[in-house]
Write a structure and sequence with these properties.
alpha+beta; seven-stranded antiparallel beta sheet; 7 strands; about 40% helix
Length: about 140
């Protein structure tokens, strides 16, 4: 099952909304002003990096395509490189979110590939969900 992944403006909007809500909560939290400024800076940088590399699929960390087959995963990154690995337990399937859990060959830790509705063609996304549900 090969799924081409593209940019999702809805994912960008959700990330931005979550960051703004967190910053608003931080603004009314009592505490040291220096610590709140530090936390606000970290939240803003994390949100911008997440939007840049994951939701908009820019840079080498962005995923362009994923191929899932009987326990095998192949991911194409933003630079055109292909990374093979194995499908591991913990993948999640819901109508609004699909998370592919995999471990690259030779890697020590698992990786997660979140795919929200709108990041792939609807029929391909449905097939991916079916494969992950029964894997």
């Amino acid at each position: 099952m090969h799924v081409r992944i593209h940019a999702s403006h809805a994912a960008c909007a959700w990330i931005a909304l979550a960051a703004l809500a967190t910053l608003a909560l931080l603004a009314v939290t009592p505490g040291s002003a220096a610590m709140r400024i530090l936390a606000a800076t970290w939240i803003a940088c994390a949100a911008l990096e997440s939007i840049h590399s994951r939701a908009l699929l820019r840079g080498s960390r962005g995923v362009r395509a994923v191929r899932v087959g009987e326990g095998v995963v192949e991911v194409e990154d933003g630079d055109g490189g292909h990374h093979a690995g194995t499908l591991v337990a913990g993948s999640f399937v819901a109508p609004w979110l699909t998370v592919v859990r995999w471990r690259p060959e030779g890697a020590r830790f698992d990786r997660s590939l979140p795919v929200v509705a709108g990041m792939a063609h609807a029929e391909n996304l449905r097939r991916l969900r079916v494969v992950l549900r029964w894997a």
